[in-house]
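Protocol step 4 of 5: obtain the predicted structure for the target chain.
Materials: sequence only (see below). No template structures provided, no constraints applied. The aim of this step is simply to have a reference model before the mutagenesis design in step 5. Sequence pasted as it appears in the construct record:
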Amino acid sequence: MINLSYFPYRLNFKYPFRIAHTERTGTDNVYILVNQGKHHAWGEAVFIPYYTETLDTFKALISQIKLPENTENIGRFIHQIKKQHPSSLFCIAGIDIALHNLHTCITGQTIAQQYGLDENTKETSFTLGIASDEEMEYKFNDNPSMNYYKLKVNQDEIQRIVQTFERLTDKPFTIDANQGFTDRNEALQWSYKLADKGVQYLEQPFHKDDFESHLWLKKQSPIPIIADESFQHFEDLEKVVKYFDGINLKVMKCGGISEGVSALQRAKEMELKSIIGCMSESSVVSNASKQISSLADWVDLDGPLLLTNDLYAEERSVEELMERLKYM
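Step 4 output (structure tokens):
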């Protein structure tokens, strides 16, 4: 018998996190503790304000589902509850991660081993959100040792942001526009400029529903155009393959590790490039995502590095974690 308890929490950012359409200083989440006998493990679901799921969504979900008797068929169990609760993928992802971690605890198999995957050897990018020149310099100098960086931009500020970054360092970088472009020609011109600078991809330049602009750009851009907001889960692959060169897969959006593996494997079969990304989660989600990141071309799992209060950054006992969470 598997039991579940949960602890609401607030993740606080080291710096205000600004992208093309919003700014945040933290993320509400819930930590999920599952146990079977003497074995315990954690999961995590986050509640991003521009998505619909909340702690109430999570409470409603767990009141309506019955946990499996064991961890032998996690994928089948998750698939069933997704069909019943298709609007609760963040919450389902948290349960999925907890069950995978519990299986590791019981069997000694890492998540990578559970799926027959290689261990990850790729370095993560480090995200610099849209900020003033002074703020960018501070963030970079606070994190100078990363191998490469992801710059958040919009159409109006991309030139300033890229120039500021290049004044600070000659390290490689990628670009994530988070739907921040409206002018096709401007995006195309920048794709050539970025290619000349060695940038490996341009992520989600146009609105998530503007597939035609992405197709237009894909056909002419010298660097891959990657779907983020336009890609949520496995079922989207058949659509995005026409309009994009690749996907940014986030286990929180797709509903967990089991679907993440399937989506990344299918993307590879479809000759789509892939990033495995994050949504400002703590080390619980990041560590699970790293376990399947050998399937991706690029890794963007810097969420824990942007937090001031990641309880799971260091190894702590279940008892200590529960005690800390009780008073949050």
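Step 4 remarks: Residues 89-107 form the longest helix (19 residues). The radius of gyration is 20 Å.
Proceed to step 5.
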